[in-house]
Amino acid sequence: MIAMKRFINIAVFCLVGWLLLSGCYDDKGSYDYQDINELIIDLPTIVSVRLDKKEAVSVKIEPKLSQTLEESEARLTYMWEKEKKNNVGLSEWIPCGEEKVCELLFQPADVNSLSVRLRVQDHREDGSEWYKQTTVKPIVPYSRSWFVLQYNEGKCVLGAVDGEGSGGVVIPDAYKLDVGKDLPIGGTPKYLLTDWMYGSPQGAIVNKQKPVVFVGTDQDVYLMDAISFEQVWTYREMLHIKKVQHDENFVPEWLATYTYEPVLGEILSDNGKLYMANADGYAVYYPLKWENDADASEFKITKVAPLRSIGFILYDEQNYRFLKTGIYNDFMEGYMYNQFFRKYGVEDYFKPSKTVKKLARIGENPRVKNVFDPDNIGDDKEMINMNMYYDVDGSYGVLATFFSTSDRKIHVYDLNAAGFGEEAKEAICAGEYTFDLPGGMSVNEVSVTTCYLYGKAVFFAGGNKIYKVDFNRTVPKISLLYEYKDPNVRITGLKFKNSLYNTGYNEDPNDWESPWIWNDFPYCLGASLDYGGNEGGILEMKLTTAAEVDPDSEILEYKGFGKIVDFGYSVKVN
After folding, report:
1. Which distant-in-sequence residues (6+ apart) come within 8 Å of 143 by Cβ?
2. What is the residue-wise DSSP string for 186-246?
3. For the sheet containing 46-50, what is the strand order?
4. Which of 11, 240, 425, 524 is such that its CA lies 20 to 30 A from the CA of 570?
5. Are 231 and 220 in contact (CB under 8 A)?
6. Contact, 497 vs 211, CB < 8 A?
């Protein structure tokens, strides 16, 4: 009986279902369907606005609209809204405009990105409401800039190309424009150094990282925040050890930092003596001494280059040799001693008797012999520059470029990071390469740089030309990269925006799963130009992965500077 009831229920269910389906099928096409007026709102994902340090600035956002059934926009109304977080962190949308074009005002302190959305109401009988969201991104002044050190009328001048691409603005004296006075540093300018992440790798718990600019002369070093231009530490504060030792003879020579992970610390030379500071951005320098007393000897260090995971490579001009340092990165020293000394002025946290015993000879891997002698490369060598490189196989090292007065050739020495260490299986001094200086180029005006994207290769400039020399082959290959149109213009310096690493961001700041966009800083090569007559400029070109000038990108030239001594690129990363 139960089975019979189940059968009847199933039969009834199937019959009803068949009738319903039949009714739907028979009725198909009996409804009066109408197309809707689809509205497409085109807004950029990001709208950038450059802030002013003193005055409010406005930005206008104008959408592009298209409709499927209408051409006129007479029956459309608009409501712009901006996002605001309430007290509990939830989003609220606040009306900010009812016109098609939205105009927003940004104060100097409005540095955070702002989400804005447009709601468009279609008032046709069959109309709907449509919306689209965008992000307004404030650009802080000098957050992406070439900084340009000049020497005009006997004084140091800090200029800038502020902004990117064709929108970059030339500011011949940026420091004076913003601060209202000349850059307060005496002496003849020697170098400009930028550091994007100066501070502690542990961040705010020790010392928050920020972009800085170093300006060095033969009398002083001026360390400033790259955004506000506020001085971070004076040179005398950096070398507090000399004050404690009653040494008032300050003769700054050079300085180097490396704050990209793994950090190396800071190093400088003053009056022939070396000093190192912990990698924490407090710039508390202590005397750098020999690791082994048996190696102790006199030296004159004229060039320095960072070597990732190892330390710094130094060139001793007095003895025609290379030396190295270890890494100076002590968390507790930064967290406690240097922080308390700098922030709170507690003198007891400064250690007058402290030395940093990290200076050493290069040595040789006992398992693999050196290709050249790092203790004596010959007294005929004149140093041009030293640069860190990354090879295509993941290895890295330092390329030291010299001119030989004997054979009149360029000599490049390869110091390989993989050769250091107890388990190393490669030579430390891994290669020596030579090539002829191109005709018409004077060694006195040669500039050299490298970039991690292009492996074991150097880019060098002289006259009005830039060359690339590739050592990723048995015989070095030299090729012309760029030639300035006027043969009388001299290229006096070469630097990539960032030769060590790249940075990026999500295409949509509100969507972490949106495509990742690289900034391509390592592809951008900058050059300083000397037009003659105390006039200078900055040239910027984008390279391809094959290290050729990108034919699809514009070569940018920023004129309006005085005589350029040095330059460098700075970015506000965080």
Report:
1. 211, 227, 571, 572
2. -S-EEEEEEEEEES-TTGGGT---EEEEEEEESS-EEEEETTT--EEE-HHHHTHHHHHTT
3. 46-50, 129-139, 114-122, 76-85, 91-97
4. 240
5. no
6. no
Using the structure block, give the residue that is written with the tokens 């050190």. Answer: 149
Alpha carbons 386 and 312: distance in angstroms, whole number: 11
Tell me which residues of the chain have a pLDDT lower than 70.
1-34, 509-510
Main-chain dihedrals φ then ψ at residue 406, nearest 5 degrees: -85, -60
**What is the per-residue pLDDT across 319-332, written as a single tens digit (0 to 9) for each?**
999 999 999 999 99
pLDDT at 34: 62
The sign of the CA dihedral 143, 147, 152, 154 is positive
Strand ranges (DSSP E) for 332-476? 356-361, 381-390, 396-404, 409-416, 429-436, 447-449, 457-462, 465-470
Look up residue 328 and give its DSSP letter: -
End-to-end CA distance of the chain: 78
Name the residue with tokens 């190396």.
264
Identity at 309, one-letter amino acid code: S
Q: Cα separations (Å) of 169 from 230, 266, 362, 441, 560?
A: 21, 32, 45, 32, 10
**CA geometry: angle at 202 spanning 199 and 207, to 5°?**
40
The Cα 324–Cα 43 span in angstroms is 54
What letter represents residue 285's amino acid? Y
- Is residue 377 within 8 Å of residue 413, measured between CB atoms? yes
Give the whole-angstrom CA distance, residue 312 versus residue 260. 13
Count of C-beta atoms within a 10 Å radius of residue 515: 9
Q: Are the C-beta atoms of residues 161 and 553 closer than 8 Å to each other?
A: no
| Identity of the amino acid at 457 | A
Q: Is the peptide bond before 287 cis (omega within 30 degrees of 0)?
A: no
Determine the Cα–Cα distance for residues 182 and 21; give it in Å rounded to an integer. 86
Burial of 480 (0-12, 13-18, 19+ CB in 10 A): exposed
CA–CA dist 347, 338 (Å, integer): 10
- pTM for the full predicted model: 0.82
Do the strands 39-42 and 64-67 form a parallel or antiparallel pair, or are they unpaired? antiparallel
CA 205 to mean position of chain CA atoms: 23
Chain-centroid distance of CA 406 in Å reads 39
Show the tokens assigned to 433: 């390469």
In this structure, the strands spanning 356-361 and 285-290 are parallel
The β-bridge relationship of strands 535-542 and 524-532 is antiparallel
Check if the beta carbon of residue 397 is closer than 8 Å to that of residue 389: yes
CB-CB contact of 346 with 393 (8 Å): no
